[in-house]
Specification:
single chain; seven-stranded antiparallel β-sheet; 18 helices; elongated
């Protein structure tokens, strides 16, 4: 048996197991969708009523319950965050990977993919999407990751042993598509077309051949590859270590490898190929699930409300029929009264004739009388109300949650009722969150394998700002060659945040800043640029930039300042001017100080000179007085004023 024959034999057995195990869930899910589109009458009842000429009215009240749950899902705004998981991982690279994931979600409309899977889970119990890699351009060798929706929930056949809500524990999965035999021959001219008369011995042929249609499936499966790993002295783990590597210790382990092939029930049409991830790249979003024996029972929001919906339709239809018959009540009279006027009286209930003639009959005095029309039954009206309430009870969603007025009058009471409905159906939002987190882990595992060379990629920030970065590059430093933004180094994990999106947060920030400025007006010049930037005004960004330039640099800080080369040059020039001004001011201060010191020294010298002269005059005075005391002549020129010379 060739490798392809082994793949087909195992795939047929697995498809048979998957289809058989999920048959009841699929049947119920298809019935759920029929109800949602308005096909709510049993076929035999509809056929009988149509045969009798009776109406089959449908008042589809189930779709509103699904919309309530899907509205909750749409308000989630799940955001994938990437965090380092070992010592080799970098926070900067984690942010780059998160930006790459946001860009992938933006290009693939990932939000709609997640929401659609959640809507199908609410409507019929399960929805699916997948992640794959493909070439970025027909003329490029670079690949990129893609997130794709799977429109048909019944196209996916899961490993029946998988029990997780996102089916992350599945070992195999099929994405099937039915093709006309003519289209199959055109697309795969060398493939063999199965024949039910000659291939009846094939196990599970019913799942691959449907009259004039052939099932072609994308088959994913996981194979375990046994390898030897070694623990090195630096703590790193190396696969299949060989000389000259000397691991501290080694052990054998199994590494999952995901395979893909496109197959029919008879042969492999394309592949098999390796999928660049160790995780199953198909993700499920499920509704409520319960294990019943060996089986797993799955339901939707409306599964148990269908009987109440049918009862509502039937009661409303019967009541409407009674009302319709009120104008169809027959006229009672004798044959003589209608003789010759049969055509006129035959139209009495369908026309608005101004008068209706009749023949007087002495045996029956008076005119023909209309029979008492049927009266609407109070039981019908009560049953209609009970059926409407039963739909709410079985879904756990009541009037306040559906936007209708109720007995609650306060906003708190209405909000509490809405929260009760959200909690009653929170499993759907929770399972969407689990699926998105699973998608994040698959992308984090796939990105290093797909984006494994140096290249420039576009990343998207939380504020929806796009920028280009180079990944898997190197830089020469004093310590040698160092990796720069290398997404292939280190391990990373995923965290999911659920809450308002960036636009909502921006509006909340604007409201908060407005309230803060109103309470503390002095802060307006300091945060005015931030407040304007959070607005949706025309030219708001330009206004914010102008206001920002008026904020002192010491208030802005380095992180908030413009980092463009022009702005950096302007800041450097301003710093140089400030330094020159400081030097000039310092020089002027030094000159002024020197002048003051010179004047002080001169004043000190003058004081010393005056003191010396005073001492000299005092000495001369003493000498003259001494000379006069002994009768010596005194020079009149030298004698101080007031001293006699003879």
């Amino acid at each position: 048996m060739t490798d392809d024959e082994k793949i087909i034999a195992l795939a047929r057995r697995r498809m048979d197991d998957a289809a058989s195990a999920d048959a009841l869930n699929r049947e119920e899910a298809q019935d759920d969708l029929r109800f949602l589109i308005g096909d709510q009458w049993p076929e035999e009842v509809r056929a009988q009523r149509e045969l009798e000429g009776k109406p089959c009215l449908t008042f589809n009240g189930l779709s509103q319950f699904v919309r309530r749950v899907t509205g909750q899902i749409r308000a989630m705004n799940p955001a994938i965050r990437v965090i380092p998981a070992d010592g080799s991982a970098s926070p900067d690279v984690a942010e780059i990977m998160a930006g790459m994931i946001r860009q992938i979600e933006y290009e693939c409309d990932g939000t709609s993919v997640y929401e659609r899977a959640g809507e199908l889970a609410a409507a019929c119990g399960i929805g699916n999407f997948r992640i794959r890699a493909d070439y970025a351009d027909p003329m490029s060798f670079d690949q990129e990751c893609l997130i794709e929706r799977i429109h048909n929930p019944f196209a996916v056949f899961w490993d029946p042993m998988a029990k997780q809500p996102d089916r992350s524990d599945a070992r195999f999965c099929f994405i099937a598509d039915d093709m006309l035999v003519e289209d199959f021959k055109e697309q795969f001219p060398d493939a063999r077309v199965m024949d039910a008369t000659t291939d009846h011995h094939m196990l599970g042929l019913a799942h691959w051949l449907h009259g004039e249609r052939i099932t072609v499936a994308e088959y994913y499966w996981i194979e375990d590859r046994e390898v030897t790993i070694g623990l090195m002295a630096d703590g790193s783990v190396v696969e299949s270590p060989a000389a000259p590597l000397a691991p501290i210790k080694t052990r054998k382990t199994k590494v999952p490898a995901v395979k893909w092939a496109k197959i029919s029930g008879a042969e492999v049409l394309e592949g098999p190929l390796d999928v660049p991830t160790r995780y199953m790249p198909v993700v499920a979003v499920t509704g409520e699930e319960w294990p019943v024996g060996e089986a797993l029972y799955r339901s939707s929001v409306i599964r148990f409300a269908k009987d109440a919906q049918q009862l509502y339709n039937m009661s409303r239809t019967e009541n409407a029929e009674v009302i319709r018959l009120q104008s169809k009540a027959p006229y009672i009279g004798t044959l003589k009264q209608f003789q010759g006027l049969e055509s006129v009286w035959a139209k009495a209930n369908s026309t608005t004739a101004p008068f209706i003639p009749y023949n007087p009959d002495p045996a029956a005095p008076g005119r023909p009388q209309r029979e008492q029309p049927p009266v609407p039954s109070q039981a019908f009206l009560s049953e209609i109300q009970l059926a409407a309430e039963d739909m709410k009870r079985t879904t756990g969603i009541y009037d306040a949650s559906l936007g209708a007025k109720s007995n609650e009058t306060s906003g708190v009471a209405i909000q509490q009722r809405q929260q009760e409905a959200e909690q009653a159906n929170s499993v759907y939002a929770d399972n969407v969150a689990k699926a998105v987190a699973r998608a994040g882990r698959i992308l984090v595992d796939m990105i290093p394998r797909v984006y494994d060379t140096q290249r420039m990629v576009r990343i998207l920030g939380e504020d929806d700002e796009e920028k280009l970065v180079t990944i898997n590059s190197v830089a020469l430093t004093q310590t040698g060659v160092q990796p720069v933004n290398d997404v292939t180094i280190g391990k990373y994990d995923v965290r999911l945040s659920v809450g308002p999106n960036y636009q909502t947060k921006r509006e909340q920030a604007a409201e908060g800043m407005a309230a803060f400025v109103q309470a503390y007006p002095a802060a307006a010049p300091l945060i005015g640029d931030l407040y304007v930037k959070a607005q949706e005004w025309p030219e708001a960004d330009r206004i914010a930039e102008r206001l920002k330039r008026a904020v002192p640099p010491n208030v802005l800080g380095e992180d908030d300042q413009d980092q463009s080369p022009e702005a950096q040059a302007q800041r450097q020039q301003a710093m140089q001017q400030q330094a020159q001004q400081a030097q000039m001011q310092q020089g002027a201060a030094q000159i002024d100080l020197a002048e003051k010191q010179a004047r002080a020294r001169k004043a000190d010298a003058d004081a010393v000179k005056a003191e010396a002269e005073a001492e000299k005059a005092q000495l001369e005075l003493m000498q003259m007085r001494a000379a006069m005391a002994i009768g010596m002549p005194v020079n009149p020129v030298l004698a101080p004023q007031g001293i006699p010379t003879n």
